[in-house]
Design brief:
Layout (H helix, E strand, L loop, with lengths): L1 E5 L12 H15 L3 E4 L12 H25 L3 E7 L8 H8 L3 E6 L11 H13 L2 E4 L2 H9 L6 E4 L18 E5 L6 H13 L9 E4 L5 H8 L6 E5 L3 H9 L1 E5 L9 H8 L4 E2 L22 H12 L2 H18 L2 H14 L5
Parallel strand pairs: 1-2, 1-3, 3-4, 4-5, 5-6, 7-8, 7-10, 8-9, 10-11
Length: 358
């Protein structure tokens, strides 16, 4: 089986790490795990973060050249389907639907957003392109049940919607280490939702006893000074590790006691899967998207504010047996639902629904 693959928001070979890049790489790995030959089609990044009409025009023009080029390549290589990861109004798939149509092959989307309210305003042309791509898809895989709501509402014809739980690019988990040591937070240091999560972390730490705990923060970004200011009252109890590569971050997970990340507006959060795969219990708030990747457990409602979160954190910090038990439960959950074998099986079930078989 030979497939064309495209990620318009961020290509899997983009130099800047992110959850989107990691998931694009994981999707390719899951398809290859099942025996497919995957060609990274275009690396055109269609993202327009500001609603810039001139930029949209340039990207639409560039896409036309990519359509012609990859229609020829796909015919030469014998592509049997086109798979696109992440189609939304700020980064629509401007290429895949046309290439698939020219080649007469199925078109599949993974993580597609519907935002018809954007059909009016500075992203109107891109929102239209997003809707066109979503309408053209034979199959749309969705990561979270929140995503499924609008996809079901706006489903096109006989289009298939399939739940693909977020997953890690590995086929097994390591033996869980005893979750002892520092608390850990993993997140980019940037404005907006990430900074909002760090603000909740700081407010929660302020309600803990003055001694007996420590927190390490893995990540970096433009808002580092603001996050450092939030954590300044806690002195050396909070340590900034900076941006870590995969191996270094894996070591940090193994030497931590728990993962603490509130999850403000997270699509789902790969760090939750990474932490649980290492056997860490998670302290998070019960938020849409986030709850799709967490092992069943006790996660405070954001409406309750800081006190329930602080109480949950203190309970885990003071009870090593509870940490160990929940850490093992979290690892078992990831092993069963969020690794390559399960993801590959789901992806190939969607291809089969389009008449594409291994």
């Amino acid at each position: 089986m030979h497939l064309g693959f495209y990620a318009p928001l961020k290509a899997p070979d983009h130099p800047t790490p992110s959850g989107d890049r990691a998931m694009a790489r994981a999707l390719i790995a899951a398809l290859e795990y099942g025996g497919a030959t995957v060609t990274l089609a275009s690396t055109l990044r269609s993202r327009d973060g500001t609603g810039d009409s001139a930029l949209q025009t340039r990207l639409l023009d560039q896409a036309q050249g990519e359509i012609a080029r990859f229609s020829q390549l796909g015919r030469a290589e014998g592509w049997q389907a086109w798979v696109t990861y992440h189609n939304y109004y700020k980064a629509p798939d401007l290429i895949g639907p046309s290439v698939a149509r020219h080649l007469g092959i199925p078109y599949l989307l993974i993580e597609a957003s519907r935002a018809r309210k954007r059909l009016i305003g500075p992203w109107a042309r891109f929102a239209k392109a997003t809707e066109t791509a979503s309408d053209a898809a034979d199959v749309i895989f969705y990561f979270t049940h929140r995503d499924a709501e609008t996809l079901e509402r706006d489903r096109a014809g006989a289009q298939q919607l399939i739940h693909l739980p977020p997953f890690l690019m590995r086929s097994s988990v390591d033996a869980a280490a005893a979750p002892d040591g520092h608390m850990l937070a993993v997140g980019m240091l940037r404005e907006g939702d990430k900074l909002a999560s760090y603000k909740i972390i700081a407010d929660t730490l302020a309600q803990l006893p003055d001694t007996g705990w420590s927190l390490r923060i893995a990540g970096d970004g433009a808002a580092r000074a603001r996050v450092e200011a939030l954590m300044a009252p806690f002195g050396p109890a909070v340590q900034f590790l900076g941006q870590l590569d995969a191996d270094a971050l894996a070591d940090v997970y193994r030497t931590s006691s728990l993962l603490f990340w509130p999850g403000v507006n997270e699509a789902f959060g790969l760090a939750y899967l990474e932490g649980q795969a290492a056997g860490l219990p998670v302290v998070a708030q019960d938020r849409p998207g986030v709850r799709d990747v967490l092992a069943p457990g006790d996660y405070p409602d954001p409406a309750g504010g800081i006190p329930p979160l602080a109480a949950r954190l203190q309970k885990l910090l003071s009870d090593s047996e509870l940490r160990h038990r929940l850490g093992r439960k979290a690892q078992d959950h990831v092993a069963a639902h969020h690794l390559l074998p399960a993801a590959s099986a789901t992806l190939f079930s969607g291809l089969a629904k389009c008449g594409v078989y291994r």
